[in-house]
Amino acid sequence: MGLRVGVVGTGYGGAELVRLLSSHPHVGELRLFSESQADRGLGEVYAAWRDADLPLFPLEALEERELDVLFLATPHGASRELVTRWIGRPAVIVDLSGDFRFRDGSVYERFYRMPAAPRSLLEEAVYGLAEFAPPELFRARLVANPGCFPTAALLALLPLAKAGLLRPGSAIVDAKTGVSGAGRSPSLATHFAEVNENVRPYNVLVHRHGAEIEVYLGAGPVSFVPHLVPMTRGILVTAYGDLVEPMTTNDLFELYRQTYAGRPFVRLLRPGVYPETKAVQGSNFVDIGLTATADGRRAVVMAAIDNLVKGAAGQAVQNMNLRFGLPETAGLDGRPLYP
C-alpha cells in the first residue's frame, strides 16, 4: 500500500504538488484540501485538471483523514496555524511557506511582519535543502521547504562556503524570476502590461529570501537583488563571491563535481557552458555553471531552476522521498519541457 498523502492549498505550488504526486509510484491515496475552494473540483480551479476526479475538501475534513504526509502549500501565517493543530498527528508535515525556515523567530517577524510560530516548533523544524539534507531530515515530523531563491542561491554557493573558500561578507546574488513566483492572485506588479517587455528589480537588499540565504550560507552578510522578468516559470541566479585563496575555473569545477557527485538532480555544466531557465522548465533539475576571474580571486556561479518545481513542489516531494526512504527520484524523473 502506498503513502496516504494530503495537500492543502490550490495556488500554483499546490497545483504543482498535485501534478507530481498524482503519478508518484509510491503514493496510494491523494486527498486535496482548501479553505477558499472547498467543495469544488480541482478541474473547476485549473482547466488542466478538468477531466480529473479530484474533489477539494474543506480543512475540517483533515480531522477525519489518516495521512502519512501532509503538504502545506499555504500562505505565510496559515501554515503556522495548521502545523500547530497537526504536529501531534502521525502525519509528517512538509511546509512550503516561510513559517518554519528560521529558528530565530525574531528574524521571521522582521521580514514577514507577523508573529512567529512557537519556539518549540521552530526548533523542531528541519530545513529541507535536499542536496544538503541533515540527518534529522530522515526522522523529521516537520520539514521546512526552502524558498525558491534560496534554493538556487544556496546550491550555487554552499560548496564554496562549506569548503571554507568563500570570503565572509563577499557574496552577491543577482536573481531573475518569472511571474509565477508571485503567486496566482493578480496584482498591478504582475499585470501583463506591466511585466511584458520589462525587467524590474524589487525589494533590493531587503527581500526576505536574502535573510534566508544569509542564515543557511553562514558566510556573513549577503547582497541579494531579485528581478522580475517577462516569463512564467524559472529562476536564474548569478552569484559572486571572493575566494579565500586563488582558484582556477577547473579547480572550482572539481570542487563542485565532488560536492554533487551522486546527486541526481544537480547537472554540473562543463566549463564554458552556462545554465538557462528553458533547459530546466517543468523539472526538478538545477543546472549549475561556473567560472573564476582571471586572477583567481573571485568565483562566479550560475544556477537555473524551475521556481515551481525545484524551487517549491518538486523539492517538497524530494524531501518526502528522502524522509520515507524512497528512491530520491520517485515521481520526479520527468524530463524538462522544451521548447
Automatic annotation (TrEMBL):
GO terms for molecular function: N-acetyl-gamma-glutamyl-phosphate reductase activity; NAD binding; NADP+ binding. Pathway: Amino-acid biosynthesis; L-arginine biosynthesis; N(2)-acetyl-L-ornithine from L-glutamate: step 3/4. It catalyses: N-acetyl-L-glutamate 5-semialdehyde + phosphate + NADP(+) = N-acetyl-L-glutamyl 5-phosphate + NADPH + H(+). Keywords: Amino-acid biosynthesis, Arginine biosynthesis, Cytoplasm, NADP, Oxidoreductase. SUPFAM superfamilies: Glyceraldehyde-3-phosphate dehydrogenase-like, C-terminal domain (SSF55347), NAD(P)-binding Rossmann-fold domains (SSF51735). The keyword Cytoplasm applies. SMART domains: Semialdhyde_dh. GO terms for cellular component: cytoplasm. It is found in: Cytoplasm. Its main location: cytoplasm. Signal peptide: none annotated. InterPro entries: AGPR, AGPR_AS, AGPR_dimerisation_dom, AGPR_type-1, NAD(P)-bd_dom_sf, Semialdehyde_DH_NAD-bd. GO terms for biological process: L-arginine biosynthetic process. Residues 4-140 form the Semialdehyde dehydrogenase NAD-binding domain. Pfam families: Semialdhyde_dh (PF01118), Semialdhyde_dhC_1 (PF22698). It is an enzyme of class 1 (oxidoreductase). Its EC number is 1.2.1.38. The active site is at 148. Belongs to the NAGSA dehydrogenase family. Type 1 subfamily. Catalyzes the NADPH-dependent reduction of N-acetyl-5-glutamyl phosphate to yield N-acetyl-L-glutamate 5-semialdehyde. HAMAP family: ArgC_type1. This is N-acetyl-gamma-glutamyl-phosphate reductase.
